[in-house]
Specification:
This protein has two helices and 19 strands. It is mainly beta. The N and C termini lie far apart (62 Å). It is globular and about 80 Å long.
Length: 172
C-alpha cells in the first residue's frame, strides 16, 4: 500500500569546490589531473592562499592543473576558476598554477603578490613558463601579478622553443 511518485528530471551540476589553503590547491590539482573531477568544475578561492617552501614543492609536483598525456592528447582545464579577489602569496616555482587551459577554461580575479616568483631553468624541450597559465586557450580576466620572473639558465635552447610570461606563457 505504497504510492509511486514520479521524480522529475534534473540536471547534474558540475562540482563546485571552495579552496582555502595551499594544501587544498595541491589536492585539487592532484584530483583534477587524475581525472577524478568534472572538466567543467567550478572553483572559488575562499581565502588568500599562502604557500611556503613545502607547499610550493608539493604543488610543483602536480605539474599544474591540466596535463599533457601524449603528443596527441592533453587534458585541459575547461572549468571556471574564480580567485574571488584573493591573493596568492609565497608561491616560488617553475610550474604554473594551470599547465593547460582549454577553450572553455575561465580564470578570473586571481592575484599574485610580490612574494611569489617564477624561477626557471630552461632546458632542451618545448616549455611554457608563467605563474598563472603555461599554455592558455580560454579566458583570463582581472588577474594581476607583482611576482618576479627569474631565468637561471638557458641550456640548449637552440633545440627547443621557450615561452615566458608573468601571467601566461603562451596564449592561443
Amino acid at each position: 500500500a505504497g504510492t509511486v511518485v514520479e521524480v522529475p528530471a534534473f540536471e547534474f551540476k558540475p562540482d563546485q569546490i571552495s579552496i582555502a589553503t595551499a594544501a587544498d590547491l595541491v589536492k585539487f590539482a592532484t584530483q583534477y589531473n587524475a581525472k577524478k573531477l568534472d572538466t567543467n568544475v567550478k572553483v572559488t578561492l575562499a581565502d588568500d592562499i599562502t604557500f611556503n617552501e613545502e607547499t610550493s614543492a608539493a604543488y610543483a609536483a602536480t605539474g599544474g592543473i591540466g596535463v599533457k598525456i601524449s603528443d596527441e592528447e592533453t587534458y585541459y582545464f575547461n572549468g571556471a576558476f574564480d580567485g574571488n579577489g584573493k591573493t596568492i602569496k609565497g608561491y616560488v616555482s617553475s610550474i604554473p598554477l594551470f599547465a593547460y587551459t582549454g577553450d572553455g577554461g575561465e580564470i578570473t580575479n586571481v592575484h599574485f603578490d610580490n612574494t611569489c616568483q617564477l624561477k626557471v631553468n630552461a632546458g632542451a624541450t618545448d616549455t611554457y613558463h608563467a605563474l598563472l597559465v603555461g599554455r592558455h586557450k580560454g579566458l583570463i580576466s582581472d588577474c594581476t601579478s607583482a611576482a618576479s620572473v627569474v631565468i637561471n639558465s638557458l641550456e640548449d635552447v637552440s633545440t627547443a622553443t621557450q615561452y615566458y610570461g608573468g601571467l601566461v606563457g603562451r596564449n592561443y
